[in-house]
Amino acid sequence: MAQIKRFGYGLQAMLVMTSHNKLHSSSEIAKLIQYEKTQLRKILSLLVEAQLVSVQQGRGGGYYMTKNSKDISLFAIYNAVNPGQQPEWHRLLATTGENYFGQQVNESFEEITSELSLAIKAILTKYTLHDLLQDRSLINM
């Protein structure tokens, strides 16, 4: 569940930055998306590391977008906030036993988790931040 929450809060933070063309403090973003600011800073640092967001340090500084919202897929955001991690649905594989039955079920689970990964990647790649802004009239909230 942590992966999905990080993705959701990271996505919301980026929507805030995209819809308001200015520097945003982590406190300001946290208040708007109703999330704990120290946890948000961890997510923002992952977005900075992935070069989707930049930060200007110091007084009057804050976070801002480094790319156009049309060029950032939701899959890029998901990967940025979950670097090098297997998707949570892969935990399904750990539920099977080592006996014959468990091995057979595990093979089925491997197919399912592989298909899930491909389907989710296709869906998240299809949408951009810009799409979400347009769909929900989030600009100038």
UniProtKB/TrEMBL annotation:
<dbReference type="InterPro" id="IPR000944">
    <property type="entry name" value="Tscrpt_reg_Rrf2"/>
</dbReference>
<dbReference type="Pfam" id="PF02082">
    <property type="entry name" value="Rrf2"/>
</dbReference>
<dbReference type="InterPro" id="IPR036390">
    <property type="entry name" value="WH_DNA-bd_sf"/>
</dbReference>
<dbReference type="GO" id="GO:0003700">
    <property type="term" value="F:DNA-binding transcription factor activity"/>
</dbReference>
<dbReference type="InterPro" id="IPR036388">
    <property type="entry name" value="WH-like_DNA-bd_sf"/>
</dbReference>
<dbReference type="GO" id="GO:0005829">
    <property type="term" value="C:cytosol"/>
</dbReference>
<protein>
    <submittedName>
        <fullName>Transcriptional regulator</fullName>
    </submittedName>
</protein>
